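subagent[fold] <- orchestrator: predict structure for attached chain, return tokens only, no commentary.
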Amino acid sequence: MKKSFFSLCFIFLFAPVLNAGGFGASGAFFINQNFIDECTGVRIDYAADTIPFIFTSDVIFDNDGVKGVLAGAGFCAGNINLYKALNFFYTPEFCAGYDFLEDKVIVENAFYAGLNCFVMSKLQFFIQCGWAPRVLFCTDNVDLKLVNFPVRAGVRFWSN
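subagent[fold] -> orchestrator:
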């Protein structure tokens, strides 16, 4: 009975937040010290309309398949209207994940800037790029990857 009660409370508390927002999907490539990394990525995100956060989940691929996964949250610090439906945005983001091929835990703090545009009332296109330094933890050492510049483009569908 307690589990049912808490489940219902959770649904009623967070249903309005999840109802007022947009789900997005995007593709990515990464620029690193070798200019273009062999990795690409896919991101699914949720941008809340009632709070200034974007919740993300990434899957990163390379030539051998799935390389790693990331999950994070970004704070939508600004969304400035440039012209009609075209906006400029900037957001810091914190992510954590795991690199399967190198057996490392990933901690990433990214700073993104980009453009978004509503082409219809519920359909938004966006492109963003940024600097995403990483700390990689494994059993015998810690690596710092300062040269990491993800570029993403995608679409977001808004529910309201």
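orchestrator: received. Logging for downstream: The longest strand covers residues 104-120. Residues 4-16 have pLDDT under 50 and may be disordered.
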